[in-house]
Amino acid sequence: MTELLQQVLDGLSTGLVYGMLALALSVIFQGTGMLNFSQGEMATLSAYVTLVLTQAGVGFWVALPLTVALSAGGGALIERVLVRRLEGAGELSLLTLSVALLLGLNALMSIIWTTDPRTFPSPFGKGLIEFAGLHMTVQQAGSLITLLAVMAATALLFNRTSVGLRLRAVAQNPASATLLGQHQGLWLMVGWAVAAAVGAFAAVVAAPVLTLSPGMMAFPLLLALAAGTLGGLSSRVGAVVGGVLIGIADNLASRYVPGLGRDLAIVAPFALTALVVMLRPAGLFGKTRTVRV
Amino acid sequence: MNTHLRRAVPIGWAAALVIGVVVPFVVSDYDLLDLTRMLAVAMAVAGLNLLLGHSGQISVGHGALFGLGGYAAIILVATYGWPWWSAVPVGGAVCLALGLLLGVLGLTMGGANLGLLTIAVAAIFPLLLIRLKPITGGTFGIFMAHSPIEPPAWSGLTEPQFGFLVCLAALALTLLVLRNLVTGRLGRAFAAVRTSTLLAAANGVNVNRTKLMAFAVSAAVAGTGGAFYALVAAIAVPDSYLVPFSITLLAASVVGGSRTWAGSLVGAAIVIYLPKLAENIVGAESAGNWSQLVYACGLVLTLIVAPSGLIGDLSRLAHRATGPQRGRTSSARIPCGPGQRGSPQQADVRPHVGPDREDTHGALQK
Amino acid sequence: MSTGLLETRRLVARYGSVEVLHGIDLSISPGEIVVLLGPNGAGKTTLLRAISRVVATRGAITLAGVSIGGWSGARTARAGIGHVPEGRGTFPDLTVEENLRLGGLARPKGRRSTTREDLAQVYATFPVLADMRRRAAGLLSGGQQQMLAIGRALMARPQLLLIDEPSLGLAPMVTQQLFEVLAGIRGEWSTSLLLAEQNARLSLRIADRAVVLAGGRVTAAGPTADFRDGDVIRRAYLGEAAGDPVEDEK
């Protein structure tokens, strides 16, 4: 039993990373209708920025907010310069653009930092916490708390502030928001900035465990995509819950399903997602709307 | 004037075929191998064109299908001693089956989920290859001393020459079949589905069956191309079929022009020759990265500057230059009322991107 | 020289290559209620959209003497033109109060401090909204949504409120009530009203002036008293009011 709980706990802490990325995906999907395959690469770039900053002597807790700010700026820039130009070009073009960004950012990072994995210092230090037979590394606990805090902050931003209100309004009905004096373009840009910042947290927190390389977020992104689909990308809560479920499913499958093992465990979350989506096409928390003609 | 151009297209293809037949006798065997690989990749890109340009679906997993076809064929030849010409169709058939399965899954899941599903396949495929070592040879893959596509003794051809001609014939046949597919009844169904699933359904087109068919055929074509690729190169390793390769194929389709068949050749040429070019400029070590970066930039530029792809937009220019006409590429663009791209009232251009659109698909499946 | 709040001169609007408005002259004074009548496809919606700058136009358009021809939709909204679009355009997943607060975000800088009072005033004008303030707007009935959309636009403290087909899809009883509220709005919120409406009978009762649009041209205009006789409207609808668009003299 303790063993099972331990697996769930481990799954939870990786699942939050997926949930965090899925949250970023969800914010962009709701705003621009784009399934952003490059979210993982964007996040990885953020982790490299943190590494560069810390290596330049900046303390981690100073480098982190700097990174987040830079990432937000980068996200806004991508929206303004690239996504905006494909406005109205359709889902397929947007998807292709995100794939291009994935390819490009990955190549860029490989050229600058090579593909060799680098150790990324844990901001929380080493050590083990034990409680009722369960154990957790300090790094795990620290990232858990950080991610929960960021998620709470994001929830507050969206649900309690006027910025969030505008973001939600523009995402839901851009034409109507314009008539209410909201600059649609501005808020789509802000949405991208928020998503990039959220993704940056995910990468920085995950990097000490995964070791930093340009492809670090490739699998987490896939799982985040599954998480978003499972929970429903039209719901931010759904994306996060989906992430946690995926993390747990992935961990349990690698431990308990014979023959899968660590490398192929990724099949399990996808099977789970496919199953759920067949029953509920919009995902667990997503809203199903009828076709409006 | 336009009829001239229309007549010029088949002439162009015939000329290309003639040149193709001459090429193996003027190009060195070493260079010929690259050209042959290009032809095989062109098949995969053409398959992707059918999907992307004609049925409006996406696949980020055609690299895996390409690999699956290749592995299936080379295993049959290397391990079980089959002749190449019976192994190639099996490669295609295996991919047809997987394509049907993925298509059904994707349609049941609905909307953008096909993208997710295919990228998952692309990611899992190399892992599976490594895992199934007894069959696939694991990380080192399967290799053969030389290509099993051997010329018959009477022909007097060298092996690369014969391989090239075989692939040329296969590609020509593939393009012919695909072309007839999209100009026929099914093509109209494709066009309807691409424009609006709702419209298509209202006009009695079986949307799901049409999409499924497109996906399956596209997968089979990619698999066949992959089979040729692996057999010509006489090697199949997991590293050739990683996610970036799948994305590269997608890029090739878009950059070449996913609604033109000539575009598939251009796209494939980029896939094969760009890394070589990069290698000459920046050296072997980072050539892959640089060419990947160039792909990405090319893809973005194409999306923004030439949405119909290199060949697509070139031929549109040609059409424009040759007088008033119904451009073959531009006829596909159906104006969607007062909210077209580029019109000034952008506030209303983008009603309900996102969730709603996804649900449009979902609701149709019910 | 007119002292109108809103003036348009030879306003032309087009969607792509299709010209929908062929030179509209319109003038609305402060505190005035003007009703825009006309058959489907006459260009009523386009004219409202042109005024709120979400459709590209040629010709002159001024708000309180300032040309707004080059402005964006968002800027125009902030400058004091409220627009309740056809189909209401409420945000279904936002609560009623969030919808209203969103409206309040567009108000001119000087009026931010009175947001709370205005919210109370909206609830006073539409008591039903107060009862549902925490509910998702998507769950409201058609009539309630219309009230929400109007309340939301009022929260921006507009100088001119454009309302597109408020009676569309509403039961006659509800429409009646809605028009009673509309009649009171200009006094309570000190705004002008431009109403595009199919229901000529009800709208003529509350308006000061009527403008009839047909085929993208003004075919008749004048004080509502002139239109009480149904024939005038009928002729205007059919575009029979021959010759130049009638200039309204104030």
CATH architecture of chain A: Orthogonal Bundle
- Global outline of chain A: globular
**Series of secondary-structure elements of chain A, N-terminal to C-terminal:** HHHHEEHHHHHHHH
Low-confidence segments of chain B, given as residue ranges, are 324-366
Strand order of the largest sheet of chain A: 1-2
Structural class of chain B: mainly alpha
Rg result of chain A = 19 Å
Domain ABC transporter (chain C): 6-240
GO molecular function (chain C): ATP binding; ATP hydrolysis activity; branched-chain amino acid transmembrane transporter activity
Organism (chain C): Acrocarpospora macrocephala
Family (chain C): Belongs to the ABC transporter superfamily.
Question: What would your notes on this structure say?
Answer:
The complex is a heterotrimer of chains A (293), B (366) and C (250). Chain A has one domain (2-279): ABC transporter involved in vitamin B12 uptake, BtuC. Chain A has helices spanning 2-32, 39-55, 60-81, 91-113, 138-160, 162-172, 174-179, 184-210, 218-231, 236-256, 261-264, 267-279; strands at 128-131, 134-137. Chain A is mainly α and 293 residues long. In chain A, a hairpin with a 2-residue loop joins strand 1 and strand 2 (134-137). Chain B is 72% helix and 1% strand. Chain B has helices at residues 2-22, 29-54, 62-78, 84-109, 113-131, 133-136, 159-183, 185-195, 197-202, 207-233, 243-256, 261-282, 284-305, 309-321, 355-365, and strands at 142-143, 235-236. A two-stranded antiparallel ribbon of chain B has the order 1-2. In chain B, helix 4 packs antiparallel against helix 10 (207-233). Chain B is globular and about 55 Å long. Residues 324-366 of chain B have low confidence and may be disordered. Chain C is of the alpha/beta class and 250 residues long. Chain C has a single domain, classed as 3-Layer(aba) Sandwich (Rossmann fold). In chain C, strand 9 (209-214) and strand 10 (217-223) form a beta hairpin. In chain C, helix 3 (96-104) packs parallel to helix 6 (142-154). The chains are: A mainly alpha (293), B mainly alpha (366), C alpha/beta (250). Chains in contact: A-B, A-C, B-C. Chains A and B meet through helix 1, helix 4, helix 7, helix 9 and helix 12 of A and helix 4, helix 5, helix 11, helix 13 and helix 15 of B. Chain A: It is a multi-pass membrane protein.
